[in-house]
Amino acid sequence: MCTILLSIHPEFVEKIMNGEKKFEFRKVITKKKPNKIIIYSTSPICKIIGEAEVEDILVDDPELVWNETKNFSGVNKEFYIEYFNDKEIAVAYKLKNVVKYEEPIMLKDYGVKSAPQSFVYV
């Protein structure tokens, strides 16, 4: 088990924080299975604003993953289909116990120099 830091657009961060989005989608699975995700909100926020535990990781055909996640995906089907366009596998991290930090944290405080394109182990 490990912790990863994910770069997530602010609109989706807000949906994660308010419980509307319980799945974070990725095109690539991590080699190590994460049990916690540190949430970095991209521009214009550019700070770590919270964390979540990983309850489950779904890795399957994008259509099957959509059918399992659509009620708490935080995105519409068109966005989802475009995101996974031409991909054979979709990854969905099911989040639980989401915590919003009282004070946002800088990347450097985690020893990370720049925002990851996808993820970074911490």
TL;DR of this structure?
This protein is α+β, with helices and mostly antiparallel strands. The protein is built from three helices and six strands. It is globular and about 40 Å long.
Describe the structure.
InterPro entries: ASCH_domain, PUA-like_sf. This protein is of the alpha+beta class. 19% of the residues lie in helices and 43% in strands. Strands 2-5-4-3-1-6 form a six-stranded mixed sheet. It is globular, with a radius of gyration of 14 Å. The model has no long low-confidence stretch (mean pLDDT 97).
Features:
Archaeosine Trna-guanine Transglycosylase, Chain: A, domain 4, 6-stranded mixed β-sheet, 6 strands, 19% helix, 122 residues, globular, 3 helices, alpha+beta
Uncertain regions: pLDDT < 50 for 5+ in a row? none
Strand content: 35-45%
> What's the Cα radius of gyration?
14 Å
H/E topology pattern: EHEEEHHEE
Could you give the count of β-strands?
6
The CATH superfamily name is Hypothetical protein
Neighbour order of strands in the largest sheet: 2-5-4-3-1-6
Query: Largest sheet, described in full?
Result: 6 strands, mixed
Protein name: ASCH domain-containing protein
InterPro entries: ASCH_domain, PUA-like_sf
Domain ASCH: 6-99
Pfam families: ASCH
